[in-house]
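Predict the holo structure. Ligand: 2M8.
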Amino acid sequence: MNKRKLIEQCEITLKQNDVGGWTRPAPGLYPHQWLWDSCFVAIGLRHYDINRAQLEIDNLFRGQWSNGMIPHIIQGKGDYYADQLWNNGRSDLMPKDLLTSGITQPPLLAEAMVLIGEKLPTKKRQGWYRQHINQLLAYHEWLYRERDPHQVGLVALLHPWESGLDNSPSWMKQIHKHHKPLWISVGAGLGLTGLLEKMRKDTHFVPARERIGTIDALLLYYHVRKLIVAHYDNKKLLKSSRIATEDVAYNSILIRANQHLRTIAAEINVEIPGWLHERMRKAQSALDMLWDENEHMYFDRDFRRQTLLHEPTIGRYLPLYSGAVSKKRADQLAHELQKELSGTLYPIASVPITSPYFSHHRYWQGPTWVNTNWMIIDGLKRYGHTELAQSITTRTLELVSIHGPYEYFSPIDGTPAGAHQFSWSAALALDLAKTSQ
Ligand code: 2M8
């Protein structure tokens, strides 16, 4: 593999997707600024344009709502298939001059800030941290204040889009089982799916078989409507929602972000409010509630029923990234992962190939994604599993180097799928190339 060529190719993709201070995830399909996409992008940019990396993050903060939430999308200029939803879902909490979505996404801001910070001279880093510390604190406060009503250290999500793993089996199974309105079931029964498929805009860019299914997409729209009708009242929604989920991937990412928040605050002598500090402390051991002792696996948990959702997803390895599990548990996960990898050509399937949901090109139901690989690699390294981390790194870089930065790839044969010129695949491949041997 020619690393120099790979890095060049990744930089070209990031440049093409630069919309002026922030980066769209991909041309055509995703024209706006997404929360976790921009964090990954900034992690790549820091290697060759540190100011631009900072700007990517500055621009994410401009979307912050007055209650502290950082939205998952800040609207840019192009047309996006779900624009109408958010156009109808405006809120007084939104910044006045922007249109944003009304939900959040995995909180990688603190991670991106620390990684960018490592490359800045001390004075500049501290100044930048000071510029954003109140916003960052407000975001973590919002998450624990509004989404952890039982005060246990696990936050609940109200919509699969918040997890970033949109059609992940545990979410879709939950929605089909507990909250599928009759009109959707009847419509599907009458064979209206074909008609609806023709109305979809996302499939103009990517073949339908590589995207979320039409009924599933309809269900996601329906659940956004429910949030809008409730004026994003989290307290009320958590009481009434039948799909609220304590997502293991999201909570693992938040726990890691808490550690980075502590680092940032300590460096500039800012005190973390007592209650938040206490909740972050609780969060460190909260993943235990998502562990199934019989199956030896982490699962998402149904917030209302407090039962584990027994569908294995890529989320089961993210506790490695959290850094909050014991060395023994981390070794168990690494062992499990190693075993699983012997069954695929490329790491790491977003759903195990043995799952009835597995489909090698369908979005979050099978393909390999560079961002989840990146987080798992990072976790493995911190737990001392350097060889496994290195082999996942090499195979991931191979995928991007052979096919280019596609949105996702088949773990079976490596064939690319989804959007081409996908920003986080480029940014994180670049980061892996720069930080590995
Ligand atoms: C995908 O999600 C959006 C909705 O947010 C979509 O399907 O239109 C997910 O892969 C998500 O994780 C990602 O942030 C977004 C943009 O890349 O696309």
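Residues 25, 30, 34, 36-37, 72, 161, 164, 166 surround 2M8 (CB under 6 Å). The chain is about 50% helix and 5% strand.
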